[in-house]
Amino acid sequence: MEQYIIKGGNPLVGEVEIGGAKNAALAILAAAIMTDETVMIDNLPDVNDINVLLEAIEGIGARVQRIDRHTVKINGSHITDFDIEYDYIKKIRASYYLLGALLGKYKRAEVALPGGCNIGSRPIDQHLKGFRALGAYVDIEHGKIIAEADHLRGKHIYFDVVSVGATINVMMAASMADGLTIMENVAKEPHVVDVANFLNSMGANIRGAGTDVIKIRGVSKLHSTTYSIIPDQIEAGTFMFAAAATRGDVTVLNVIPKHLEATIAKLVEIGCEVEEFDDAVRVVSKGALRNTQVKTLPYPGFPTDMQPQIGVTLALCKGTSTITESIFENRFKYLDELARMGANVKIEGNSATIEGVNGFSGARVSAPDLRAGAALVIAGLAADGITIVDDIVYIQRGYERFEEKLRSLGAQIEKVSTEREIQKFKLKVC
Ligand code: UD1
Fold this sequence. Notes:
Layout: E1 3-7, E2 13-17, H1 22-31, E3 38-42, H2 48-59, E4 63-68, E5 71-75, E6 83-84, H3 86-91, H4 97-106, E7 108-112, H5 125-133, E8 137-141, E9 144-148, E10 156-158, H6 164-175, E11 180-184, H7 190-201, E12 205-207, E13 213-217, E14 225-228, H8 233-245, E15 249-253, H9 261-269, E16 273-276, E17 280-284, E18 293-295, H10 307-314, E19 320-324, H11 333-339, E20 344-348, E21 351-355, E22 364-366, H12 370-382, E23 386-390, H13 393-396, H14 402-408, E24 412-416, H15 419-429
Parallel strand pairs: 2-15, 3-14, 6-7, 10-11, 18-19, 22-23
Antiparallel strand pairs: 1-23, 1-24, 3-5, 4-5, 7-9, 8-9, 11-13, 12-13, 15-17, 16-17, 19-21, 20-21
Bound molecules: uridine-diphosphate-N-acetylglucosamine.
């Protein structure tokens, strides 16, 4: 089992290139099978979740050709199988985007029902409500969602909760329905807009993505395109909080600063200096850091996927901070691990109270999920002494060459899998 071993205490300094947005890429890869023509997608992050989804896409008969590490060509003209197995859904929930894609194109899809996950129960009722509204017959049998329709027909759909997944999944199906679909109370995340832009570049007619209402005029056919995925705002934010927590000076390159506004606002509130450029943001953390209050919300609010990273940083800020997690019910597990490194935290329901401490001491901790794992790496980088992070398979799902990028900023971090490698690292750094 691979682990990260970290010798903390070095401020991160330098520039780091941010990759393509994982969550946009997952939906765009699924949508790419909606045409029989070849689609080329660039700026893909080379992370485990993407590679598993590409396998799922190949598994149903689509052709996947890797051009290079970040570019792929997909041809969906040979799909013969509309059934996505539980093995894929178990590894990567977002395989459920193939439900909307297959239903839109073939009017039939079978996808294993995703269960809960480490961050919460994660129902998909709003996805199913949207498909049913478009006229699909949707049933759950033997752990599978079976959706089929003779025709999909455009409809006025009002979502009960703001859901990124439901917005994207229903948007894909509605792109190939007959007539006009109006989706209200939709998610406005940058990756929702990116998926809409991608579908439009294939000939779909989607308007309003990025606002509360999306209008889709269905088309009968989509065509070939070449598309580059937007930068990953969560990867960028992770490096920005790593700069803050280690008292560093980091510039994230290849970002869209507008997508980082909520993160930038919090960094400024706690006392960091933040400089925005056209496609880069610099974070300097040299003065005293102070407490603040955070509530996670759908975009443009503070992202739940950045909650652990700010949590670790706030644990080093002077004063009492509070975090309210309003999206997922189980996203504070990392705070128990952080307490083992000396953080002073109290969790009550969906709120955490964090009393700032002067420093962390390195310890052996486990990554509870993807973003929480990255946050514990930040904690290790800021801590005194050696930290070992277990279960980094979660981190590898969403961060490309994480340790290499951190090393390029001066971090002392290695991926290890044996006791011998751990001892070698300790000898090198101590
Ligand atoms: C996506 C992101 C995830 C991020 C989350 C919130 C991907 C692959 N994942 O997840 O990283 O943390 O957005 O920004 O893009 N809900 C329902 N019924 C539904 C769907 C959702 O009640 O049918 C609830 C969820 O339980 C949650 C809230 O709505 O409380 C938001 O979830 P949603 O936006 O759907 O998250 P995901 O798309 O799963």
